[in-house]
Design a protein that fits this description.
Number of helices of chain B: 8
Order of helices and strands of chain A: HHHEHEHEHHEHEHEHH
Distance between the termini of chain B: 50 Å
Oligomer: heterodimer
Largest sheet of chain A: 6 strands, parallel
Largest interface: A-B, 53 and 44 residues
Number of domains of chain A: 2
Largest sheet of chain B: none
Shape of chain A: elongated
Order of helices and strands of chain B: HHHHHHHH
Number of strands of chain A: 6
Shape of chain B: extended
CATH topology of the largest domain in chain A: Rossmann fold
Strand content of chain B: under 5%
CATH architecture of the largest domain in chain A: 3-Layer(aba) Sandwich
């Protein structure tokens, strides 16, 4: 059973190399594996699809550059969809370190869709207070964000006409990499101010949010790169997330194979020990 | 190509490769990238807090609108810093008392409502939605699994009585539910880490193109040569002694 011992002693650098080679291969040459859209992602898409033009859509990008590969594709896809549906889009962040990234994403998506700041969308930026920001926004939005990110008074922006608080928001999505994120928006926002809420999270957090989805506390959930890829599929526009899914699937297959090999080696060596 | 984009691409490619050298072993390239990351993160946060917090919510409203009432919360904030002066450290308790008092008051009712009452209601609600014919649907079947999982897991964490007989059986079922939950969480964690890797590789491939003057490839060669030189230096007889 020397082979079993050998299996258990594979140098970890060999595994790193295998993962790297496999990922690089599929990043360079994607094969276009099929992406099945899950009901939790479809329900977000359907909700935005049914919103009448001019409805208020709030997107909170509660993440920083560390989670960009997972959450930025979701933000881009959601903004493209919202702009195409002619929604009034408000964008903000509860993470101070995410401000620059959020601004870059929203301006690039708006430029692509030909939308104007203050008229079709507004970027509110960051304001301190974490969950208190949500509570304050529910009471008076202009007091929480007196000016937009570029220093223009909120009250003077055509986009903000008739929007006084979170009660005037028709749909809100938080793209969260941790706390504050989706849960905070539910606890301090949706439950009190009764707007519909969807979530997009890093894959690490996704499993923990399914109870909220199961009970209908959030109406949809996008988890990790896959969530973004599913949304891109629904939009019919291949993006960064879709391009990464082949590599994702390939590396998952490798990890499953390594888990099987490791367990096989462990069982064989244990049987040998008992013998 | 703009100079800042080019500079950003070369820096990003170089630092990504520096960080990945840790997979080989701990080395000066990794340490350089790590320390730079910590410094830049802190620096960026301080700058953003200065503009988004100090200027936007305190200095500007006072200067432009005469909002002198904002000095009161500002003073409360300053009191927290009294922790650093042992003789007057007790003063900081006033600010902390306010933070804890407000925090508890705002958080507790909402958390209880959102994560206990609504979850309990959600666990039982599907049983109240029987079809007009009175039959069961997959929704109810799913709800049974959820209910069994909730009750069994609660039994596992119920330590007031000894786990014997039926209680032992329920607790064992609870363990299986917990293991499935941990497995799902682990699977998602693998997915998250791979997504980050794919994100970095995607950027490296992009920066390795002619429009960025092959930044990734050049930096890869430099980092590998640097690692080789570092290994050679480490193994010289004077260093071994």
């Amino acid at each position: 059973m020397a082979w079993a011992q050998r299996l258990l002693r594979i140098d970890r650098r060999v595994i790193f190399l295998l993962v790297a080679v496999l990922t690089l291969t599929f990043v360079l040459r994607p094969v276009g594996l099929a992406i099945r859209v899950s009901p939790e992602v479809r329900s977000i898409y359907d909700y935005i699809e049914k919103l009448p033009a001019g409805s208020v859509f709030l997107l909170s990008m509660d993440f920083d550059p560390a989670s960009k590969p997972e959450l930025a594709p979701m933000a881009v896809a959601l903004l493209r969809h919202a702009f195409a549906r002619k929604l009034r889009v408000m964008v903000m962040t509860l993470w101070v370190t995410g401000t620059g990234l959020a601004e870059e994403i929203v301006t690039s998506a708006a430029r692509e869709a030909g939308k104007r700041s203050g008229v079709d969308y507004v970027f509110l930026g960051y304001t301190p207070g974490t969950v208190n920001v949500i509570i304050n926004m529910g009471q008076d939005l202009a007091k929480t964000f007196p000016k937009d990110y570029y220093g223009k008074p909120i009250d003077s922006l055509p986009m903000m006409r008739g929007i006084k608080s979170l009660r005037d928001v028709q749909y809100m999505i938080s793209l969260g990499a941790g706390s504050p994120g989706v849960e905070a928006w539910y606890v301090y926002g949706k439950e009190k101010y009764a707007f519909e809420l969807g979530g997009g999270v890093t894959a690490v957090s996704a499993a923990g949010l399914y109870p909220l989805l199961q009970t209908g506390q959030i109406n949809g959930l996008m988890g990790g790169l896959r969530g973004g890829a599913e949304y891109e599929t629904l939009l019919g526009r291949r993006g960064v997330a879709t391009a990464g899914m082949d590599a994702q699937s390939a590396t998952h297959a490798l990890i499953i194979a390594l888990i099987l090999v490791g367990n096989l080696g462990y069982l064989a060596s244990r049987r040998r020990g008992q013998g | 190509m703009a100079t800042d984009a080019m500079l950003g691409a070369w820096t990003a490619a170089g630092l990504t490769l520096c960080m990945y050298t840790f997979l080989y072993k701990d080395n000066p390239f990794f340490k350089f990238g790590e320390h730079l990351y910590v410094g830049v993160s802190i620096g960026y946060t301080i700058v953003r807090i200065y503009y988004d917090v100090m200027l936007k919510t305190l200095v500007n409203p006072i200067a432009e609108q005469g909002r002198w009432d904002l000095l009161l919360p500002a003073c409360m904030g300053v009191l927290v810093l009294a922790r650093f002066v042992p003789r007057v450290a007790w003063v900081s308790r006033i600010a902390f008392a306010l933070i804890v008092g407000f925090g508890s008051g705002a958080v507790m009712p909402r958390i209880i409502s959102s994560f206990i009452l609504q979850q309990v209601e959600g666990t039982f609600r599907p049983f109240l939605r029987l079809t007009p014919a009175g039959g069961w649907t997959w929704l109810q079947a799913n709800a049974v699994v959820v209910l069994v999982g909730v009750v069994a897991t609660l039994f596992y964490f119920f330590f007031s009585i000894e786990h014997r007989g039926a209680v032992y059986g329920a607790a064992r079922v609870g363990i299986y539910f917990l293991m499935i939950s941990f497995g799902a969480a682990f699977g998602y964690t693998v997915m998250a880490r791979m997504s980050l890797l794919i994100g970095r590789f995607g950027d490296l491939v992009r920066f390795g193109g002619p429009e960025f003057h092959y930044a990734s490839l050049v930096m890869l060669v430099l980092v590998v040569l640097g690692l080789g030189a570092w290994e050679r230096l480490r193994r010289t007889p004077s260093n071994e002694q």
